[in-house]
Amino acid sequence: MASFAFFDAVTAAQTLAADEFGVIGDTGSLEVAGSDAISSSGSVAVTVHGRLFGGLSAIHQLDGVLTLTVGETGRVNAGNDDTVFARDIDRAFVSNDGRIRSLEDALDLRGEGPISILNTGSLLGRSDGIVTASTGSATKIVNDGTITGTDSGGIDHLGGDFALINHGTITGEDYGVDAADIVNDNASSVDEVRNFGSIEGGVLLYALNDIVFNRGEIDVVEMGDGNDIYIGRADGSAGSVDGGGGRDALVGSRADDDFTGGLAGDVFVFARRGGDDRIEDFGGRDRIDLSDFGLSGFSELRPLIEDSTGGALIDLSDRGLTILLVDVDKADLRGSDFFFEVMVS
Predict the structure, then answer these.
(1) How high is the pLDDT of residue 225?
(2) Structure pTM?
(3) Would you give the DSSP letter of residue 18?
């Protein structure tokens, strides 16, 4: 057990203990066939500017604190396991400017947390790009690069609070981001996604009061049973947004929005130049907020509603918005279905 710094080719597996470090320089490599390249425990730090390869995992961490820095020229790969595998960790910080690839998960980090991941490079897993669980704390991911799960998902978060800021591209076969919180039985996590880039495969969130702020592109957004908030801004688009259970607030962007509120009474908020939007399940205690349009009340709005083959169409096209209320008749709408003034709490 000893710290190391390699600037040439090494093929012997390494072990790091508490307060030790490993460095692979840009001219160096650590390539180990048939086993983990680095086995570690306690508080350790690994820096990779060259090549790191393990026949199983590149890094296998048990307990303690893992700090991993992969430089722009760094290449980290694994043969038959997760590239970076960490269990029962107290804390993890991963900064990747290079490339981390795996035949399984590129990063699989689980423990009490907190877990922080900063990616400006490439994370590619044949299964998931990233798997995290921070059951006693929070996971925060900032992505300015690419995160890809070719057979499963881009990011799979299993427990604890979750926050994602995405300016890059996240891609998954089954989902882009899945914050299922299965470790905590859907009971205690709060999830927040702020997207300025692209999330292909969609965003799936579950319990409690989650937030999605979208100024980029998301295939679909499916929120859970809490009182959730979806905010579309500028040309931010989502193929569809489903609020799930709870009293949700769904705010449209300048793109064409397709909203499903789900169970309970939801609020749908629209603004000028909001595109051609749809509400798939308007009814019950749902309300539509048109306070941005300067309408005096329902008597002024009523002539702008017409029955169409798809449902009741609210035509505010002179102000850049139409809203189709699917399978709703104009005659069933009342003034109490709308807000015409800004709500002040």
Answers:
(1) 85
(2) 0.95
(3) T
Report which residue type is found at 338.
F
Q: Which helix (H) or strand (E) holds 300?
A: helix 298-301
Neighbours of 140 (CB within 10 A): 19
Integer Cα distance of 46 and 26 in angstroms: 14
| pLDDT higher at 206 or 308 | 308
- Residue 30: per-residue pLDDT: 98
Q: Could you state, in order of their start, the residue ranges of all structural domains in the chain? A: 4-250
* Bond prior to 114 in cis (omega within 30° of 0): yes
Exposure of 193 by Cβ count < 10 A (0-12 exposed, 13-18 middle, 19+ buried)?
Answer: buried
Q: How many CA atoms does the CB half-sphere of 189 hold within 13 Å?
A: 29
Phi, psi of 291 (to 5 degrees): -65, -15
Helices vs strands, H then E, count in the chain? 1, 39
Asked if pLDDT for residue 236 goes beyond 90, the answer is yes
Residue type, 73: T
Averaged pLDDT, 263-271: 94
**Averaged pLDDT score across all residues of the chain:** 94
Query: Please, is 331 exposed, middle or buried when counting C-beta atoms within 10 Å of its C-beta (0-12, 13-18, 19+)?
Result: exposed
Beta strand residue intervals within 55-152, DSSP E: 59-70, 75-78, 84-96, 99-102, 107-111, 115-119, 122-125, 130-134, 138-143, 146-149
